[in-house]
TrEMBL record:
GO terms for molecular function: ATP binding; phosphorelay sensor kinase activity; protein dimerization activity; protein kinase activity. Its EC number is 2.7.13.3. It comes from Streptomyces coelicolor (strain ATCC BAA-471 / A3(2) / M145). CDD domains: HATPase_UhpB-NarQ-NarX-like (cd16917). This is histidine kinase. One of its GO terms (cellular component) is plasma membrane. Residues 304-398 form the Histidine kinase/HSP90-like ATPase domain. InterPro entries: DUF7134 (IPR055558), HATPase_C_sf (IPR036890), HATPase_dom (IPR003594), Sensor_HK_TwoCompSys (IPR050482), Sig_transdc_His_kin_sub3_dim/P (IPR011712). Keywords: ATP-binding, Kinase, Nucleotide-binding, Phosphoprotein, Transferase, Two-component regulatory system.
Length: 405
């Protein structure tokens, strides 16, 4: 349990109300308090030679009433009090034993006024008080020290308040700036995560639907001549649909969790170890001969890069099934010390005439975006022996891992 001042609990509500109260209401209360202190000598006079009059009380009130505007016009208020205070002292009815109004305006000036106003007023009050005391009868030396030290203390307290207020404002500004940066980072991360999920959904649906369309087109052709093959085609359609539904449920489940718990979440993504299964499924479902070839010593890839590599190969094979009308495709992984090169080549019809880069379809754009997001690059276009080729270079980590089986 943390130690706490015994006065902190009773004073906390009062301080909270003062912070939220109207400035004019607080300043009016301060002025009333100073006026009461000034009036004490008039209300309870002592026996002496100094006459106590209404004129003297009005001069004393002149040192208190202007304090109502001390925050709205600090320098003008200080000037008014600076005139009324020596006038009260000269009138001597009652004499200002303590300059209550002067202490308040010096504090206010030190806390709120401009530098030149603070310096001029402090110097004027020090000189004025010294001159006033010197004309006082039977003035004791300690009175000089007491009055001058009181002025300096009031000014120093205001300066401390100004410094603390500036420090607090700087901390609040820094906190707001950090909050804006945090909100921007969160929004940026959320947008990136949603874009990644959108790409994953596109890859899953495009891949599954392509395989289902190929099998659905082949089914009616062989349903009478080769019922077993037709049954296998329908099984392949069902398998592709179930796999797509499973992955979509996982994605949608994460999106629902994001709504309950804000903040981007990462989906468990397939990596390069899942490539043999992907190649096998595409070959079996689409009737396409697909080979996976690995050269070099495989190295470790960051998880995001592994997922991107899997999705790139998946999208490239989906394009082969949908557009290439190919009979064979080769997936190559060429490992080097600083990265891996993915190559997907087919023997289909190749790019359209005049489209040497492979076009700008959503699938090819997604391949380039995934490669760029991992610090790599992608090149798409016609293969050296015809057909279509996708070449993607991805950076690899320095840690080595076992080769793909």
């Amino acid at each position: 349990m943390s130690a706490r001042s015994p006065l902190s609990s009773p004073l906390a509500p009062v301080l909270a109300r003062l912070r939220t109260a109207s400035p004019y209401a607080v300043d009016a209360a301060v002025a009333a308090l100073v006026l009461f202190a000034v009036s004490l000598q008039w209300l309870f006079p002592d026996e002496g030679d100094d006459p106590l009059s209404w004129r003297g009380w009005l001069l004393g009130a002149g040192t208190a009433v202007p304090l109502v505007w001390r925050r709205a016009a600090p320098f003008a208020t200080a000037c008014a009090v600076s005139v009324a205070t020596p006038a009260q002292a000269v009138h001597h009815a009652p004499p200002p034993d303590l300059m209550y109004g002067g202490f308040v305006v010096l504090y206010t000036l030190a806390a709120l006024a401009r530098p030149w106003q603070r310096r001029v007023m402090l110097a004027g009050w020090l000189a004025g008080v010294a001159a006033t005391i010197s004309h006082k009868e039977d003035a004791e030396p300690f009175e000089y020290a007491f009055q001058l030290l009181s002025i300096v203390c009031a000014y120093a307290l205001g300066s401390l308040t100004r410094t603390q207020r500036a420090y607090t404002a700087e901390l609040e500004d820094r906190a707001r700036h950090l909050e804006r940066e945090r909100a921007a980072d969160t929004a940026r991360a959320t947008a990136q995560e949603r874009a990644r999920i959108a790409r994953d959904m596109h890859d899953i649906l495009a891949h599954a639907v392509s395989l289902m369309v190929v099998q659905a087109e082949a089914g009616p052709v062989v349903v009478r001549s080769d019922p077993a093959r037709a049954e296998a085609a329908f099984d392949a359609i069902a398998t592709a649909g179930r796999d797509a539904m499973t992955q979509l449920r996982r994605i949608l489940g994460v999106l629902k969790e994001e709504e309950r718990e804000p903040g981007p979440r990462r989906l468990p993504q397939p990596g390069l170890t899942a490539l043999p299964g992907l190649v096998r499924r595409v070959g079996e479902s689409a009737g396409l001969r697909v080979e996976l070839r690995t050269t070099g010593e495989p190295g470790a890839l960051p998880p995001d890069t592994e997922a991107a590599a899997y999705r790139i190969v998946q999208e490239a094979l989906t394009n082969t099934v949908k557009h290439a009308y190919a009979s064979c495709a080769v997936v190559g992984l060429d490992w080097a010390e600083d990265g891996v090169t993915l190559t997907v080549t087919d023997d289909g019809r190749g790019p359209a005439p005049g489209d040497g880069t492979g076009g700008g379809g959503h699938g090819l754009i997604g391949i380039r975006e995934r490669a760029a997001a991992c610090g790599g690059e992608a090149v798409t276009g016609g293969g050296p022996d015809g057909g279509f080729r996708v070449v993607v270079r991805l950076p690899a980590a320095a840690v080595r891992r076992t080769a793909l089986g």
